[in-house]
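TICKET: design request
STATUS: open
ATTACHED STRUCTURE:
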């Protein structure tokens, strides 16, 4: 497939909003692609380049891209920024600039999808001091060969945000439709492989193998997530449930094959180098090949330390030994996803737990199983007394659902009024904060989009504002007066007093008294709260108000 054909397909998709139509268009494209093109197309159309399990990163910041565009269009970077401001989008700006480019290209090669992909792989493989220059050269080369329309989508792919409204769900359904395969099998293979591109390839060439797809060791799978709920509802719905402490640390996924071990963070980034002590602890606790899900916490005098201490260790790139002495980490294992070549995610939780207990000699998180509200409440109190965040309640018969925030895991915390939201914009501060951002526009997820939910301007210390500025300055996409918009990368945990119905934002809700709690750099944009979750909270909040006895 030529990249111009791919671009035309994107243009068509960008112009439509109906999910069924999107699925239909994609499903018609898939069968005509070669086996090599198919996975690339599938990832590109979702604005991704590499499989989700893969550690490769393009590492092109907006600045590098703007400079390359400026060079090709023969204009200064400021002009590129102005064009982005005017059009409100990097893709449209590149298209406009390439259309007016002064430096005439006598010979433009038609490039195809595979060639673009190889170019991007080349960019990702550049490391070290000179890498930015090398990356810039390849970016110029790729964009230099692009027509204006190709430029629109190439630039967006390079920033890994295609903005054509195609989400993973639609692509999965398109695969089912295109190759007439069972949607349950496609879901299973997607969960195990964590690469929809490969799932598409298998659906085309070996659909019979989808059923047997196993998790591959050192290819991390997405983490199962939790919803909020109550002890009473869980027991009413399920009878006997499992209760575990909710540890306030960082999620990990530990992979071990023979003596080889690797550790991944909640965002599936490899963090082995930063956590040699945790790896050693887990390596010593089993002789099996395993994938273990758990939470690592920092301990001092037998009490858990604040979550920030753990994050410091996860982020650490240098002086690891010193950091280990200052902050000692302990893993708490609560699930087993893979054991000696077998994928366990389809087994009931009670069976996975049993296997975990017989596989791992230490570090298994204790569990209480009961259908008595009092017993679970006592466990909750014990968790809080021991300095943990709260309780996790789990349905004993439930499978492990990677990446899903379902009702099979329920979190119980004393403070339920915080949300994880994506930072999508900001306004410059005033007075002594004029060189920093002062307030932030935050968003939740709705289907495949991010929609604004609130502005957050309180709760920040000066240090936090400076830290947040440092993180966000690289992600600015456009300026409009005092307002800037960001490529969504950063997640804030935000506290609030109430969720209100509001006409201000598209989602119909707004937060009352929003305040910044902390940066959640252990979370990615796909982890932020959904509109559905907010509606749920709103309804629960109204219900509990009705139940509160009146004051008079
Ligand atoms: P939250 O981050 O508030 O959505 O809560 C869910 C998170 O709690 C998970 O992603 C884990 O990082 C963490 N957690 C702590 N203890 C447990 C546990 N026993 N089981 C599952 N998740 C846990």
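STATUS: resolved
RESOLUTION: sequence designed for all positions
ATTACHED SEQUENCE:
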């Amino acid at each position: 497939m030529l990249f111009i054909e791919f671009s035309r397909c994107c243009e068509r998709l960008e112009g439509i909003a109906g999910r069924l139509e999107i699925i239909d268009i994609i499903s018609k494209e898939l069968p005509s692609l070669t086996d090599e093109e198919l996975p690339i197309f599938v990832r590109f159309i979702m604005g991704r380049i590499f499989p989700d399990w893969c550690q490769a990163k393009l590492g092109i910041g907006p600045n590098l891209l703007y400079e390359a565009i400026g060079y090709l269009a023969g204009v200064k970077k400021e002009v590129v920024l102005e064009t982005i401001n005017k059009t409100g989008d990097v893709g449209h700006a590149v298209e406009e600039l390439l259309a007016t480019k002064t430096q005439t290209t006598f010979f433009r090669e038609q490039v195809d999808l595979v060639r673009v992909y190889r170019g991007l792989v080349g960019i990702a493989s550049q490391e070290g001091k000179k890498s930015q220059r090398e990356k810039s050269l390849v970016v110029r080369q790729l964009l230099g060969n692009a027509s204006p329309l190709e430029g629109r989508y190439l630039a967006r792919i390079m920033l890994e945000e295609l903005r054509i409204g195609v989400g993973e769900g639609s692509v999965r359904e398109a695969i089912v439709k295109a190759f007439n395969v069972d949607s349950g099998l496609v879901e299973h293979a997607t969960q195990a492989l964590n690469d929809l591109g490969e799932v598409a390839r298998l659906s085309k060439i070996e659909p019979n193998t989808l059923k047997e797809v196993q998790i591959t060791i050192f290819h991390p799978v997405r983490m199962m997530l939790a919803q909020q709920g109550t002890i009473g509802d869980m027991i009413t719905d399920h009878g006997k449930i499992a209760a575990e402490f909710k540890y306030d640390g960082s999620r990990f996924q530990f992979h071990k094959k023979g003596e080889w071990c690797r550790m991944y963070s909640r965002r599936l980034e490899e963090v082995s180098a930063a956590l040699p002590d945790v790896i050693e602890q887990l390596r010593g606790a089993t002789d099996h090949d395993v994938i273990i899900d758990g939470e690592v916490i920092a301990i001092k005098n037998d009490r858990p330390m604040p979550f920030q201490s753990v994050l410091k260790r996860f982020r650490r790139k240098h002086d690891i030994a010193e950091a280990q002495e200052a902050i000692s980490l302990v893993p708490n294992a609560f699930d087993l996803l893979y054991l000696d070549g077998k994928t366990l995610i389809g087994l009931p939780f009670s069976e996975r737990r049993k296997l975990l207990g017989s596989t791992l000699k230490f570090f298994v998180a204790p569990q209480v199983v009961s259908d008595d509200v009092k017993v679970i409440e006592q466990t909750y109190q014990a968790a809080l007394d021991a300095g943990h965040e709260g309780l996790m309640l789990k349905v004993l018969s439930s499978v492990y659902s990677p990446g899903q925030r379902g009702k099979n895991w329920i979190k119980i915390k004393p403070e339920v009024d915080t949300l994880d939201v994506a930072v999508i914009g900001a306004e410059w501060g005033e007075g002594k904060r004029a060189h920093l951002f002062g307030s932030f526009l935050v968003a939740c997820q709705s289907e495949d989009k991010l929609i604004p939910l609130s502005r957050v301007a309180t709760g920040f210390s000066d240090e936090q504002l400076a830290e947040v500025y440092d993180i966000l300055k690289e992600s600015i996409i456009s300026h409009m007066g005092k307002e800037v918009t960001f490529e969504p990368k950063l997640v804030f945990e935000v506290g609030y007093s109430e969720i209100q119905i509001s006409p201000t934002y598209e989602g119909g809700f707004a937060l009352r008294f929003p305040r910044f709690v902390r940066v959640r750099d252990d979370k990615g944009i796909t982890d932020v709260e959904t509109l559905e979750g907010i509606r749920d909270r709103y309804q629960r909040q109204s219900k509990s108000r009705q139940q509160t006895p009146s004051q008079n």
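CLOSING REMARK: The radius of gyration is 24 Å. The longest helix spans residues 531-547.
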